[in-house]
């Protein structure tokens, strides 16, 4: 690792001030992505601003059908929350299958979506749920937040504070994990609202990161059952192809995982 300066932020305002006064600062919470990248010398921030002690960025609250999750809340806390399990069980299931126990007890929802790894789980969940990402300056819809592989709408120095979700009528998540990393080789989150509308998002398979599948959404809006997807095809021309799976294999995985997600939601 290259030399770096460490700062412990006490509030959101303090964190933003510390980052803006540094040459090339990075926010860090669980560090499950940033620290390995630094160890490999693929990143060399001049300063690290630690968010683990910012109380305003922690915790889960449910008010009616509104769920707010602080950006510094760990995956394990989301997975074990009775409130999340009751209001949005698919999200609790998703969080409980991220990585291994070490990753789940250190990694945070804010860090995961800020990195926007194309195989990460949360982007599919938040996009399918129509979530809102709240930063220190504005609110961004999930559709607008995730802009491409490892890319988001965040501006330099902007800090994710929380994620807000409206509880769906039903939701489910299914993924085919890489046996070594537990990252999704294909993961599908489906959410049905009270008015019958459906949103379905795919992670781990797209060559440009998370995406929605309009054909599956339309089919499920008419018939919310796994069988409704039988005649729906998945175009593999824009899917990832690597040492783990070809694009054609991933296309098949997307359909299989979509059916499992619908079954879980049902």
Features:
266 residues, alpha+beta, Uridine Diphospho-n-acetylenolpyruvylglucosamine Reductase, domain 2, Uridine Diphospho-n-acetylenolpyruvylglucosamine Reductase, domain 3, Enolase-like, domain 1, 5-stranded antiparallel β-sheet, 4-stranded antiparallel β-sheet, 11 helices
Q: In terms of quaternary structure, what is this?
A: single chain
How many individual β-strands?
14
Q: Helix segment count?
A: 11
Kindly name the structural category.
alpha+beta
Separation, N- and C-terminal Cα atoms: 48 Å
User: How helix-rich are the residues, as a percent range?
Assistant: 25-40%
CATH topology of the largest domain: Uridine Diphospho-n-acetylenolpyruvylglucosamine Reductase, domain 3
CATH architecture tag of the largest domain: 2-Layer Sandwich
Whole-number total of structural domains: 3
Q: In what order do the strands lie side by side in the largest sheet?
A: 4-5-10-6-7
Level-1 CATH class name of the largest domain? Alpha Beta
Radius of gyration: 18 Å
The share of residues in extended strands comes to 15-25%
Please render the helix and strand layout as text.
Layout: E1 5-8, H1 12-20, E2 25-28, H2 34-39, E3 47-50, E4 60-63, E5 66-70, H3 75-80, H4 82-87, H5 89-95, H6 101-106, H7 109-115, H8 122-128, E6 132-135, E7 139-141, H9 142-145, E8 146-148, E9 151-152, E10 160-166, E11 170-177, E12 184-192, E13 198-203, E14 211-212, H10 214-222, H11 247-265
Parallel strand pairs: 1-3, 2-3
Antiparallel strand pairs: 4-5, 5-10, 6-7, 6-10, 8-9, 11-12, 12-13, 13-14
């Amino acid at each position: 690792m290259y030399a770096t300066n460490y700062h412990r932020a006490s509030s959101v305002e303090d964190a933003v001030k510390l980052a803006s006064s540094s040459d090339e600062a990075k926010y860090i919470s669980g560090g499950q992505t940033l620290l390995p990248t630094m160890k490999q010398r693929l990143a060399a921030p001049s300063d690290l601003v630690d968010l683990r002690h910012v109380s305003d960025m922690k915790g889960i609250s449910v008010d009616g059908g509104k769920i707010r999750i602080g950006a510094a809340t760990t995956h394990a806390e989301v997975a074990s929350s009775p409130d999340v399990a009751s209001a949005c069980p698919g999200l609790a299931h998703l969080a409980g299958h991220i990585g291994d126990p070490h990753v789940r007890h250190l990694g945070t929802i804010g860090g995961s979506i800020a990195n926007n790894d194309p195989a990460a789980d949360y982007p599919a969940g938040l996009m399918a749920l129509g979530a809102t990402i709240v930063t220190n300056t504005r609110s961004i819809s999930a559709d607008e937040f995730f802009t491409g592989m490892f890319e988001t709408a965040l501006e330099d120095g902007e800090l994710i504070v929380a994620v807000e979700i409206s509880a769906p009528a039903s939701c489910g998540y299914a993924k085919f994990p890489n046996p070594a990393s537990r990252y999704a080789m294909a993961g599908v989150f489906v959410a049905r609202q009270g008015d019958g509308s459906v949103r379905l998002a795919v992670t781990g398979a797209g060559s440009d990161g998370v995406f929605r599948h309009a054909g599956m959404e339309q089919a499920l809006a008419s018939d919310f059952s796994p069988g409704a997807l039988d005649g729906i095809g998945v175009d593999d021309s824009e899917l990832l192809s690597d040492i783990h799976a070809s694009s054609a294999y991933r296309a098949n995985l997307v359909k299989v995982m979509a059916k499992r997600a619908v079954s879980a939601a049902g």
